[in-house]
Amino acid sequence: MASSFDDLVREAEAAPVSGWDFSWLDGRATEERPSWGFQRILGQRLAEASAALDVQTGGGEVLAGALRTGAGKPAVLAATESWPPNIVKATRLLHPLGVVVVADPDEPPLPFADAAFDLVTSRHPATVWWSEIARVLRPGGTYTAQHVGHSSVFELVEFFLGPQSEEVRRGRHPDDESAQARAAGLEVTDLRFESLRTEFFDIGAVVYFLRKVIWMVPGFTVEAYRDRLRELHERIEREGPFVAHATRFLIEARKA
């Protein structure tokens, strides 16, 4: 592995960031996994459904994994995605598994009729349109998802952006999102939250992560943050891995 600051940064800048596969970070960063095992839960829910929709599927990796390890799949299964490189990747991965991938701008309305699905799922949606989820669910249908929680990896965010307001830190709070679900007419049947230790072992891992998870430091580029990146590189070299904490919550909500 390259060891100089410039080499590490150059390598991370050249790495492709399409899809939702983080295997490039193997050996460079670690993140604890939530105890509930979302892919396993997703596989179980899909096996029980007759018509399902996966919203903001990314490159389709999680949905594909759930289908391959689950006990079955719905007769009707669709997925939405907005980013063109991910649409291409998801189509190639999911079409052989019988999933229709629909290009969608991730803004209301979802391109489906009312009460079209008895299951809607998502893993780490960037935005959640609760009224649309409720609209496309059949009565008795369920939304099952793993969301990024509030102040996730904010140790890293605030290293680059400085202290954030309490309002910003509270964004994506599970209490707030469950309240929004109820306001849309859904009954929250399960809500679990965990804070998960995350470690970055070199500056290349940081650059790759911020290029891929673009909402962490909006507008991030190496040139714009080169001085802070070099400072963080020297800190990691001196003190060891940079430690942050990712937050995740599992939420399941049922349409009455």
Could you give the topology of this structure?
Layout: H1 5-14, E1 29-31, H2 38-48, E2 51-54, H3 61-69, E3 76-81, H4 84-94, E4 100-103, E5 117-123, H5 130-136, E6 137-148, H6 154-161, H7 166-170, H8 174-183, E7 186-200, H9 203-212, H10 226-239, E8 242-255
Parallel strand pairs: 2-3, 2-5, 3-4, 5-6
Antiparallel strand pairs: 1-7, 6-8, 7-8
Helix pairs in contact: 1-9, 2-3
User: Regions with pLDDT < 50 over 5+ consecutive residues?
Assistant: none
Secondary-structure element series: HEHEHEHEEHEHHHEHHE
Strand order of the largest sheet: 1-7-8-6-5-2-3-4
Strand-residue fraction?
25-35%
Helical fraction equals: 25-40%
Shape: globular
* End-to-end gap: 54 Å
Structural class: alpha/beta
Biggest pleated sheet: 8 strands, mixed
Total DSSP helices: 10
Overall mean confidence score, pLDDT: 96
Number of DSSP strand runs? 8
From the alpha-carbon coordinates, what is the Rg to the nearest angstrom?
19 Å
